[in-house]
């Protein structure tokens, strides 16, 4: 079975260089970036200077495979992963063996300047892979810039992760677009360097080795662009998975779907592309809406199901959408968690 580092050689959409800790940008880099022209060329030049955009952080915990009739996989957009204790409780109560995590901060003032993924993995006793989706040049969106006015980011990383209580043997980052969209068009004044991506890992389970993939598609785009990102995803997963069973999950930003639809393929081409590649979703999802209003009153309905699980080579059951709330019922993310059990056919 090939190592991911070998498979990534010569493929600009795959990153498989693992480090114990990602390199933080210098203060001089941020000064230079804030003064640079908002062009694709400048974005790409600046991105090329940052090792964190071409490496992944991989940390292993002591873990072993427990006898089980299947594995539980959960996907959650944690919206910065700001609320540590209730997030630990949510993931723990979900029973997840593998967590496909999106929107997590490292060294951002809005999340207490913590390494949110490392903290979560530590308290859950899980191994993790973390990759940088964006280097944030400011404190975040307009709300966050107001809430944290006068504060400073310690690092400035925002990204996606995969956590596993089962042995994680190889990992890679999959680039889903060419990057720069949040630089040349700084939406909501939120300047960022980087692009959308997924995190993939080969994991040893009671069912044998599988490939698990944590995905985050672009939020401010259309169905054609989401389909294009999904084509990149499928091609990369084909290369990494070989004959292994696969579970893909995360935030697909399928905001065009009518509430309650059981035929998402009629509205979002990405479902047809995944079906053509052998993936199924019907039993892995309960089709509930996954958006939630935050304590500040945003966002407001109408909502959609943005978060999905897909599988190839495994049978899904017990699919459920779990409210992402704390003990008082307050939202800890604007996305709920989705989970399902997977077993061999």
Describe this structure in words.
With 345 residues, the chain is α+β, with helices and mostly antiparallel strands. Helices cover 23% and strands 29% of the residues. The chain is built from 9 helices and 15 strands. The protein has helices at 4-8, 27-35, 40-48, 84-94, 116-124, 142-147, 181-184, 223-241, 269-276, and strands at residues 14-15, 18-19, 56-59, 71-80, 98-106, 127-136, 157-164, 168-175, 192-194, 197-205, 208-216, 246-251, 307-312, 315-322, 337-343. The strands form 2 sheets. Strands 2, 3, 4, 5, 6, 7, 9, 14 and 15 form a 9-stranded mixed beta sheet that branches. It has a 6-stranded mixed beta sheet with strand order 1-8-10-11-12-13. Helix 8 links the parallel strand 11 (208-216) and strand 12.
- What is the share of helical residues? 10-25%
Amino- and carboxy-terminal Cα gap: 22 Å
Mean pLDDT: 95
Number of helices: 9
Described by strand count, sense and barrel closure, the largest sheet is: 9 strands, mixed
Overall form: globular
Order of helices and strands: HEEHHEEHEHEHEEHEEEHEHEEE
């Amino acid at each position: 079975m090939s190592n991911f580092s070998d498979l990534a050689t010569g493929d600009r959409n795959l990153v498989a260089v693992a480090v114990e800790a990602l390199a933080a940008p210098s203060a001089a880099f941020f000064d230079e970036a804030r003064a640079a022209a908002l062009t694709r060329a400048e974005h790409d030049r600046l991105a090329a200077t940052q090792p964190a955009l071409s490496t992944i952080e991989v940390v292993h915990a002591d873990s072993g495979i427990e006898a089980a009739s299947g594995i539980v996989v959960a996907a959650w957009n944690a919206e910065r992963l700001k609320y540590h204790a209730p997030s630990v409780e949510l993931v723990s109560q979900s029973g997840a063996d593998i967590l496909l995590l999106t929107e997590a901060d490292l060294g951002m003032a809005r999340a207490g300047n913590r390494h949110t993924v490392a903290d979560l993995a530590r308290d859950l006793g899980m191994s993790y892979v973390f990759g940088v989706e964006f280097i944030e040049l400011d404190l975040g969106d307009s709300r966050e810039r107001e809430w944290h006015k006068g504060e400073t980011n310690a690092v400035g990383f925002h990204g996606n992760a995969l956590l596993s209580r089962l042995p994680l043997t190889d990992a890679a980052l999959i680039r889903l677009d060419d990057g720069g969209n949040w630089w040349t068009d700084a939406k909501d004044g939120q300047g960022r360097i980087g692009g959308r991506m997924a995190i993939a890992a080969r994991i040893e389970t009671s069912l044998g080795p599988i490939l698990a993939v944590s995905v985050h598609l672009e939020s401010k785009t259309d169905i054609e662009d989401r389909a294009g990102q999904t084509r990149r995803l499928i091609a990369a997963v084909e290369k990494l998975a070989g004959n292994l069973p696969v579970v893909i999950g995360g935030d697909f930003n399928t905001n065009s779907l009518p509430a309650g639809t059981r035929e998402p393929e009629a509205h979002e081409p990405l479902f047809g592309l995944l079906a053509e590649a052998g993936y199924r979703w019907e039993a892995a999802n309960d089709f509930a809406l996954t958006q939630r209003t935050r304590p500040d009153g945003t966002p407001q309905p109408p909502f959609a199901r943005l978060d999905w699980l897909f599988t190839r080579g495994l049978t899904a059951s017990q699919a459920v959408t779990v409210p992402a709330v704390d003990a008082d019922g307050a939202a800890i993310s604007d996305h709920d968690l989705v989970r399902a059990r997977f077993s061999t056919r």
